[in-house]
Amino acid sequence: MSKQVCVDCITDSYLQTNFADNDVDECDYCNEERPVVTLEELVEELEEAIQASFTYAEQPPRSYSSWIPT
User: Fold this and answer.
1) How far apart are CA 67 and CA 70, in angstroms?
2) How many Cβ atoms from other residues are within 10 Å of residue 4's Cβ?
3) I want to staple 35 with a disulfide (CB 3.0 to 4.6 A). Which of 14, 22, 26, 47 is the partner?
């Protein structure tokens, strides 16, 4: 069984709002009865956010000598 974390133990306001209407159960971290999300669901949400905003940096030039001032 997956651990559950409550919305009060999540410090990000977007995630708190996103999971605020979830079922109420006991949080495995603070032991309070609040809306909870499983760690798997939380990780999936974080992964989607990272994928949506992630871009690769430009590749550096192959010749590092161009970085050395002359």
Assistant:
1) 9
2) 21
3) 22
